[in-house]
Design brief:
alpha/beta; 4 domains; 14 strands; eight-stranded mixed sheet; four-stranded antiparallel sheet; rod-shaped; 23 helices
Length: 624
């Protein structure tokens, strides 16, 4: 469960203080979690910064130039003649139409032809480099920094006056394409680099262009704005020209019809015949049938007058159109021309570094949380109380980065070290243990070999010996015999056992350089001291010793290896901080329960979580 795992990860405020266990995550749990995983959490932000620096070092800078144009609504001529204020506005659809015109291929082709971008080698697509290319760049930078870049290809790449490999590759590829395909590729590059955006709800439009060349970016942005204004003028001029041409054709047609009507009127009047023509058959006048053979003079005059008025109207419109052509004005104008950008718009160094460190921090916290959730090793006294139900009677730090946990005589050689002070606190905790009878015979065991069991046994015995108590250490860990191998390099094999107890007492020797006596594992194995019966018989004969410490086998030896623990006054369990699996310690406690041994507490070895100052503070608290 998450609550239990988190609560097990927090350290206690005092070694023997009141139980402050909580089922929920508190601030102390979070602080303890961060302290335990601080190296892992901080390593990933550094990796994130390293990755961000690698990206910035291998990415070409990209520059963005910006120009701004303003679209003004055009007031129709009829409305200009009216009195009063006139308020016109462009709706969103009209402004979006202008934006679409700027993004159109027509504007792109006008700019490409104006600047001759097809033949410009600097006008190339902005492509991202692959990982291999980025590492090649880093290698080239390193060679340049060391002044050993002898490769001509690297020198060409590093020389700013020459074309980079990317540019040359693009140029060669473009040269192999047809004229049409080259132009299409340039149009696509132009479209990808162009940015058009309306400024809020105003009539101002920002036109931006992105390129690796800052001067080229400014030129293209200004050329795009100029092409848009020029396109509006050309469109208006073309529309006006088409209108004038239509008026000319229509005037010619109406003039011909007007002249024909006038001519017919004059010819009719020249005949001086104003009588009515004979009406068509079937027409009666005053009851008599009448006939008409053609139009009357009035009809001809009306027709001629109508064509004349049409001609005059067309002539006035034609004159007005011709007069307005020189004064065509575009509805858009440039209000801010683009200049050469001084700072690259991409990559944004501060943002990339911030994102890299943030991503690394999130990854570090995620991995640390995953390891914390999946970690089933013993790390804190609180975890021992919650999971095992035992007290933590000591936390012994490592004695050095290279030396590991410590030597067998560190308490004598370094009496003021943090290890020695915590070991004395452990000795005091053993003497204050809540047991039914005084502790004279103490067993020391561990869940796995290598937890520091033998080091704890030797230094604890030396501490008892220096206090004036006659102390004996019995090594019954025959499978490992760490104490025997390290204390007595050459130990004569035991003889035949005619009188077992007497022979055992004769084999007890003082430990070299230490303040206690020692019984090696060969003697213990020969006399089967691992069994409770033999161990009891031996302890009865060792009444002269005030403290007897038995180095028991680890739990990996099985229940039979811990059988002798049942006749001892108490057993100390040794576990390595951050390495000993909690499940194995739980299994060890069950074995001790089966053997009916009394567990004094658990000792953590090789503790790296707390600093020396914190250890000293806790030691002073325990002393008071």
């Amino acid at each position: 469960m998450l609550e239990r795992q988190w609560s097990a990860g927090a350290g206690p405020s005092h070694l023997h203080g009141p139980d402050r266990d909580s089922e929920f995550v508190g601030f102390a749990d979070i602080v303890s979690f961060i302290r335990q995983r601080l190296f892992l959490i901080m390593a990933f932000p550094l990796l994130g910064l390293l990755g961000a620096g690698f990206y910035l070092a291998t990415t070409d800078p990209i520059y963005t130039a910006q120009t701004q144009i303003l679209i003004e609504p055009k007031i129709p001529e009829l409305l200009q003649q009216q009195s009063g204020e006139i308020s016109l506005s462009l709706d969103t659809s009209q402004v979006e139409t202008q934006l679409a015109v700027i993004r159109s291929e027509k504007i792109a082709l006008m700019v490409i032809d104006e600047l001759d971008l097809v033949k410009n080698p600097s006008f190339k697509p902005l492509s991202s480099l692959s990982i291999a290319e980025r590492f090649d760049r880093i290698r080239a930078m390193a060679l340049e920094a060391l002044a050993i870049d002898q490769d001509s290809r690297l020198r060409r790449w590093l020389s700013p006056a020459e074309t980079s490999p990317e540019v040359s590759d693009v140029t060669d590829a473009m040269a192999q394409l047809s004229q049409f395909r080259r132009k299409r590729a340039v149009v696509e590059t132009f479209t990808r680099g162009l940015g058009v955006q309306r400024v809020g709800v105003s009539y101002a439009i920002n036109i931006t262009f992105t390129s690796a060349n800052p001067e080229l970016a400014a030129k293209v942005a200004n050329a795009t704005a100029g092409a848009f204004v020029r396109e509006q003028l050309e469109t208006r001029a073309a529309a006006a020209h088409e209108g004038v041409a239509w008026l000319e054709g229509r005037m010619e047609q109406v003039r011909t019809q007007m002249n024909l009507a006038t001519q017919r009127t004059q010819e009719f009047r020249a005949k001086h015949d104003y009588s009515l023509e004979t009406e068509p058959a079937g027409t009666t006048l005053d009851g008599a049938e009448a006939r008409r053979n053609g139009p009357t003079l009035e009809e001809l005059e009306v027709t001629a007058d109508t064509y004349r008025k049409m001609y005059e109207s067309l002539l006035a419109a034609f004159t007005n159109s011709v007069n307005q052509q020189p004064y065509l004005i575009a509805d858009a104008r440039v209000i801010t021309p683009a200049t050469r950008p001084l700072v690259a718009s991409h990559p944004r160094e501060k943002l990339v570094l911030a994102l890299g460190s943030l991503a690394g921090l999130m990854a570090g916290f995620g991995l640390a949380f995953a390891r914390h959730t999946l970690d089933r090793t013993i790390r804190t006294p609180r975890q021992i109380r919650d999971e095992l139900g035992f007290d933590c009677i000591g936390e012994l730090p490592a004695m050095g980065f290279l030396r590991g946990f410590g030597e067998l005589d560190d308490v004598l050689r370094l009496p003021e070290s943090l290890f020695s002070r915590n070991l004395r606190n452990m000795k005091a905790a053993i003497s204050l243990a809540d047991v039914t009878h005084p502790l004279r015979c103490i067993g020391v065991t561990s869940a796995t070999p290598g937890d520091g069991k033998s080091t704890v046994t030797s230094n604890l015995a030396a501490l008892y010996g220096t206090s004036g108590m006659r102390t004996l250490v019995i090594d019954v860990d025959g499978s490992h015999s760490t104490l025997t191998k390290r204390l007595l390099q050459s130990w004569p094999p035991p003889g035949e056992n005619h009188d077992g107890v007497e022979r055992i007492t004769e084999r007890i020797k003082p430990a070299p350089g230490l303040q206690f006596d020692f019984l090696p594992s060969p003697v213990s194995d020969a006399n089967r001291l691992i069994t409770p019966k033999n161990m009891t018989a031996l302890l009865d004969e060792l009444e002269s010793y005030e403290i007897i410490i038995v180095d028991l086998p680890p739990s990996t030896s099985g229940v039979h290896g811990l059988a002798a623990a049942s006749v001892l006054d108490g057993v100390v369990v040794v576990a390595e901080w951050g390495k000993t699996p909690l499940d194995l310690v739980v299994e060890l406690s069950r074995m001790l329960q089966v053997t009916k041994a009394s567990v004094i507490g658990v000792v953590l070895t090789k503790v790296r979580r707390l600093s020396a100052r914190q250890y000293r503070k806790r030691a002073n608290q325990a002393a008071h």
